[in-house]
Amino acid sequence: MGLRRPAVFDRIVSNPVENVNNHQPHEISPTVALYPGSFDPITNGHLDLIQRGARLFDRLIVSILRNERKEPLFSVEERAEMLREVVADYPNVEVDSFDGLLVDYAASRSATVLLRGIRAISDYEYELQMALMNRRLRPEVETVFMMANEAYSFISSRLVKEVFSLGGNIAGLAPPLVEARMRERIGSLSKK
Ligand code: PNS
Fold first, then answer.
1. What pLDDT sits at residue 1?
2. Which of 63, 116, 157, 181 is an active site residue?
3. What is the pTM (predicted TM-score) of this model?
4. Could you tell me the distance, in angstroms and rounded to a whole number, from the CA of residue 26 to the centre of ligand 1?
5. SS3 annotation, the chain
6. Is 161 a catalytic residue?
7. Which residue out of 23, 55, 70, 136 is catalytically annotated?
8. Atom of ligand 1 nearest to the CA of 98
9. What is the per-residue pLDDT across 106-131, written as a single tens digit (0 to 9) for each?
10. What is the pLDDT of residues 143-153, one digit of tens each?
């Protein structure tokens, strides 16, 4: 009986619409969380969220969307390489990439949590829509929203790229190795 959750918890999480059976006693297994995104490039806001996720969950898989329609600054392989360097000190963090439906990929990796960062209220509408759609597709996968440190609340990959390409200073907004890779990439693009 040690692993049986209190009845009050069953009442809170049980939802007949979702047809999830929360009433069965079950073994508590390690929680695998998935942090999906474009990460083009990784910012200090992403990194802050990864650090928080790595503390909260047993395993964290940071996974890059392979999106043929977008024209990224860095290829998926380059982004994965940068991510692996910046998470090298976190033994429970893995870097991967995916295509297709996020929830199907989550299931294939045994992830039960989707981790997403919320900066301002403007993020919330889009994130809520995605979270509810993902829940409809696979009710057993739970979305968890987390806030990065408020110092990073205005940072986005898009703005980091824009500021950098226009000659602005991005120190403190992205890891130094990302800044160096951007200098190489944007420098070589502007010479073409
Ligand atoms: O960093 P981003 O670009 O905001 O990440 C968006 C991402 C990758 C989480 C989202 O586009 C996604 O999940 N794409 C996979 C396709 C999918 O499952 N779509 C339905 C989501 S409701």
1. 38
2. 157
3. 0.87
4. 31
5. CCCCCCHHHHHHHCCHHHCCCCCCCCCCCCCEEEEEECCCCCCHHHHHHHHHHHHHCCEEEEEEECCCCCCCCCCHHHHHHHHHHHCCCCCCEEEEEECCCHHHHHHHCCCCEEEEECCCHHHHHHHHHHHHHHHHHCCCCEEEEECCCHHHCCCCHHHHHHHHHCCCCCECCECHHHHHHHHHHHHHHHHC
6. no
7. 70
8. 15
9. 999 999 999 999 999 989 999 999 99
10. 999 999 999 99
